[in-house]
Structure prediction request, 328 residues.
Amino acid sequence: MQASPSFRVFAALSYLLILLLAAASPVFSDSLIDGAQAAGGCSTAGSPVWDGNVANATLEYTNWEEDYWGEDYEESNQGNGGGGRVAEEYVSSSSTVNRVSPLTEGFHLSKVVANGTSSGIRINLTTGYTYTFCITSSAHNSTNSVAIDVYLMTGTDWRWYETSYSYAKNGWTEEFDMSDVPPEWRGGFYWRPYRDVHAYEDLEEITFSTSLDHLEYRTEEYYYGSNMLVYDEFYLIIDGWDNGRDSDAVDPEVDIDVDITIMVEERVMVPSWTVTLVCMGVMITLLAVPLIIHKKYHAVGLEEVGTEPMPALNTSHESAEKDYSVLE
Prediction:
């Protein structure tokens, strides 16, 4: 049975849909769909707009008596046996700006991460761009390199990161120890790097890139216990303390100079609904092809073919008109 031209066209389209589905799978689409990728060198002439497209994010631990009571209070209590530090407390010197604008242009900045603290920036990553991050470190006012930990996380995980830092500095590490809990079960109870992959630990130079196929959301308290859904921002954190993770760098015991460069490039983004469309098309094709083959196979036996009776069998009329007079 020879396939008709229309069937061959249909089969070719079916194969094309199958190839498109394979191209959209995670095995082949790492370069198209957001992933943690190694990136090349970074260079940009842009500068950050503080509280515009970038905001400061710093956690530190400070002397409570010195900062809040002053030196006069400390001197007046020395004779009463009350001198020295009264207490220590966790302090966040992060920017209080509500939201920063979406990051569409690259920039370069330098920061000093004090020993035992954590410092970074808050940025608003958005869809349609590829972001490349380059971070280098060295000991403060020195050329000696220092191993650091760099994390990219959402605002939701940043809040858990703040809690973890506060607990560690207050000596409550055991109460917040999640080392025995698998990472996939820590969501909602412990901070995690973005997509569980953007953690770059115990390194001196770090370069990576990422992109978003959709915006991230989180719930935020709005009014009298009611919540609303808002876009989540991102934090690029340079970790200068022992955060308790098994693979993180040890406490550096020095202040760290950090150079951060972020490059932003536009990218062609395939809409997420195309994957659903391709999957539906392939499923419909897989269901339709057997039916079409079945119908065409049986239609061959039903075709009307013109036939003529064999001459030897066409005798009914002739036998009725034969002349039997010769037998008389």
Q: What stands out?
A: Helices lie at 5-24, 64-68, 70-76, 155-169, 273-301, 316-320.
